[in-house]
Specification:
By secondary structure, the chain is an alpha+beta fold. The chain contains 17 helices and 14 strands. Among the domains are: 178 residues, no CATH class; 159 residues, no CATH class. Helices cover 44% and strands 14% of the residues. Strand 11 and strand 12 form a beta hairpin. It is globular. The structure holds adenosine monophosphate (AMP) and magnesium ion.
Length: 493
């Protein structure tokens, strides 16, 4: 790596403040990198100097071949519970934090390279990424953002020009990931296991200042900080549930304290609704199945709470009592977010105690009739405009659906809002285009094995407008024509 002056306005607050929670490290150079995707909209939000992307300079930065001036690259240390088992030594095994910059909203953002080579945390890994998973993360994270769901973002995807060895030899890739920070529950688990008891306080103070600055003023700021994280993560999982997103690997090292979705390894969107849906080939027990995600939320936050015991109160018993009180609120807080989301999805803005039952009955029918989760909500608004046939058809002309529809119409009429407004509101919250698994696979296959980015670019551009139905894009809205082939995902980039 060659050092060179640049136009980035880097800060290195993590490195400056959290000695002991990272190792300095540089990227491995790659022979002939090629920029495959660059996110100009995001670059604008980050107020990047256009020189960075209008010249080969960006390519050398985002491929790891040059260290920009002001950057102090580090690999972050973290631990984590993976599928329930504690691993004290994880850390960025294939990622490098270049530094932080302030975006257009005055928020500090991490710029991280993923797949840039061996770090002190690589263990037996090669520190690299295959291109397919890099493109997959780019696509799905940007699609999540377009749906308004908090997520890390993707700035650039690079074909590294070299192959990486997985089960076969595959083209390599590097992703430039942008995040509010990469601090995970696992970062707290790592800090709390260190001999230096001050580390957990330093990490909490840094995280509070960066993510929950309002809690500084509160009497017990560490407890308020914890409650803030619980709230953000509960909201996030409720958002995932409302679009049928299955993260697939909700280990504590993959859960950010900012509440952004991170690490898009084995994730996927559900087509046919079933609460037990799992896509990840390694999740044999279904620990991270669709319907288990809310329970895992609490499980993970309990691991975080354990690390905060020394900070919340001088007396351990009192500390545990206070943290437990917050933990007990996660379920009701989550359920409230979920109910709010689901109400909106079926066009309701007022509250009726029977709404919970109404929504669950709808889900039950979807499950019994094996209905596509995304389309189910979209056809409801169509039916309200009078196009009942399309909804009845989707629901296999089921009597149960007809009865449910009558109840729903009665409930909608209580809103005292013109149907047209309800339909518009529903179409703004229920996506028509999600990253359908078969479409994602098709696009990745062309990009990686045929050197053809066109299907990928088309899919990406459709997903950037998830709510607006456009002529010509019909195939993007439909589930796989071969549902009998079960879709499986694999970990790792
Ligand atoms: P993940 O399940 O993708 O979140 O990764 C879990 C851990 O494995 C993290 O510490 C990663 O940095 C590490 N890891 C995954 N793939 C590699 C790789 N190819 N080389 C080195 N470390 C890796
Ligand atoms: Mg991870």
């Amino acid at each position: 790596m060659i050092k060179k002056a640049t136009t980035f306005d880097f800060q290195n607050t993590y490195a400056d403040n959290l000695n002991g929670l990272y190792k300095e490290c540089i990227a491995d150079p790659v022979p002939s990198p090629k920029m495959l995707l660059f996110n100009y909209g995001l670059a604008e939000e980050l107020e990047l100097d256009p020189f960075i992307f209008s010249s080969d300079y960006g390519l050398s930065i985002f491929s790891g071949n040059e260290i920009p001036e002001g950057s102090n690259p580090i690999a972050q240390a973290y631990a984590g519970h993976q599928f329930g088992n504690f691993n004290p030594h994880l850390g960025d095994g294939r990622a490098l934090l270049l530094g932080e910059i302030v975006d257009i909203h005055k928020q500090l953002k991490d710029i991280q390279l993923k797949g840039s080579g061996i770090t002190p945390f690589s263990r037996r890994g090669d520190g690299k990424s295959a291109l397919g998973p890099v493109l997959r993360e780019y696509l799905i994270s940007e699609s999540m953002h377009a749906m308004g769901i908090p997520t890390t973002r993707s700035l650039a995807a690079i074909d590294s020009g070299e192959n990486v060895l997985r089960e076969s030899s595959l083209p390599g890739g590097i992703l430039t990931r942008i995040a509010s920070s990469h601090i995970r529950i696992g970062t707290f688990e790592y800090a709390s296991k260190l001999k230096d008891k001050n580390q957990i306080k330093k990490l909490a103070d840094y995280s509070i200042a960066r993510h929950y600055p309002d809690t500084v003023k509160v009497e017990n700021s560490y407890l308020a900080f914890f409650a803030g994280i619980c709230n953000e993560q509960a909201s996030l999982i409720a958002n995932w549930m409302s679009v049928g997103f299955i993260h697939g690997v909700m280990n504590t090292d993959n859960m950010t304290i900012s509440g952004e979705t991170i690490d898009y390894g084995p994730c996927a969107f559900m087509d046919e609704y079933h609460p037990a849906t799992v896509f990840s080939s390694i999740d044999k027990q279904g620990r991270y199945a669709y319907a288990n995600q809310p329970a895992i939320l609490t499980w993970n936050l309990t691991r975080l709470a354990e690390t905060l015991i020394p900070l919340v109160h001088d007396e351990k018993e009192e500390s545990i009592k206070l943290l437990t009180e917050v933990l007990q609120l996660i379920k009701p807080v989550y359920e409230n977010f979920w109910l709010m989301n689901m109400r909106s999805k079926i066009g309701l803005s007022k509250e009726d105690p029977k709404d919970y039952e109404l929504i669950n009955n709808f889900l039950e029918i979807m499950k019994d009739e094996k209905i596509d989760f995304t389309l189910a909500f979209r056809v409801l608004s169509k039916a309200l405009t009078g196009d009942m046939a399309i909804a009845r058809n989707l629901f296999n002309n089921s009597k149960k659906f007809d009865v449910w529809f009558m109840h729903w119409q009665e409930r909608v009429s209580q809103e005292n809002v013109p149907d047209e407004d309800i339909v518009n509101a529903m179409n703004k919250i229920n996506p028509i285009y999600i990253p359908r698994n078969h479409k994602v696979e098709e696009a990745l296959f062309s990009a990686v094995h045929k050197n053809d980015m066109e299907p990928f670019s088309n899919l990406l551009s459709v997903l950037m407008n998830p709510y607006e139905e456009n002529e010509g894009n019909e195939s993007y809205a439909l589930p796989s024509p071969n549902p009998e082939i079960p879709f499986k995902t694999f970990c790792g980039t």
